[in-house]
C-alpha cells in the first residue's frame, strides 16, 4: 500500500552554495634589510646590492650616490680608503620614509646583499 510519503517525489537538494572566490595573492612585502649593512661596503658592493645610482654627485674627495624608490631616497657618502684604492660607504641617509629597513629592502636587488 502506498502512503503519501512513498508516492511523493524525493526531496531535492537545496541549491548548491557557491564557494567564495579564492583569495587574491597578497602583494609581496619586501624583506627589511638592516641599514647598518651599508656601513663600510665598497662602491662595487653598493652597486651589486642596489644597482647603479640614479644620481652621482662629486664631492671634494668622495662622492654622494642617490637611489629613489617611491617616496624613499637613499643617499650614500663614499670616500676613498685611507690606504688608497676604491671608495667605501662612510655614511648613509634615508629621507621620505619612517622605516629605513623597509625602504632598503624595497631597493635591494633580489639575492643581493645576502652577505658582505
By CATH, the architecture of the domain at 32-107 is named: 2-Layer Sandwich
Unreliable parts: none
Please write the string of helix (H) and strand (E) elements: HHEEEEH
Range of helix content: 10-25%
Separate helix tally: 3
CATH fold title of the domain at 32-107? Beta-lactamase Inhibitory Protein, Chain:B, domain 1
| Main CATH class of the domain at 32-107 | Alpha Beta
Gap between N and C termini, in Å?
89 Å
Q: Enumerate the strands of the largest sheet in spatial order, edge to edge or round the barrel.
A: 1-2-3-4
Q: What's the story with the biggest beta sheet?
A: 4 strands, antiparallel
Mean pLDDT: 85
Radius of gyration of CA atoms, rounded to a whole number? 29 Å
- The count of strands amounts to 4
Class by alpha and beta content:
alpha+beta
Which descriptor suits the 3D outline?
elongated
Question: What percent of residues are in strands?
Answer: 25-35%
Amino acid at each position: 500500500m502506498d502512503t503519501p510519503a512513498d508516492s511523493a517525489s524525493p526531496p531535492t537538494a537545496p541549491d548548491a552554495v557557491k564557494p567564495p572566490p579564492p583569495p587574491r595573492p597578497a602583494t609581496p612585502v619586501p624583506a627589511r634589510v638592516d641599514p647598518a649593512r651599508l656601513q663600510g661596503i665598497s662602491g662595487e658592493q653598493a652597486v651589486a646590492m642596489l644597482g647603479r645610482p640614479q644620481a652621482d654627485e662629486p664631492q671634494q674627495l668622495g662622492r654622494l650616490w642617490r637611489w629613489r624608490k617611491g617616496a624613499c631616497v637613499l643617499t650614500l657618502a663614499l670616500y676613498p680608503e685611507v690606504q688608497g684604492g676604491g671608495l667605501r660607504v662612510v655614511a648613509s641617509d634615508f629621507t621620505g620614509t619612517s622605516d629605513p629597513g623597509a625602504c632598503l629592502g624595497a631597493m635591494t636587488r633580489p639575492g643581493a646583499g645576502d652577505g658582505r
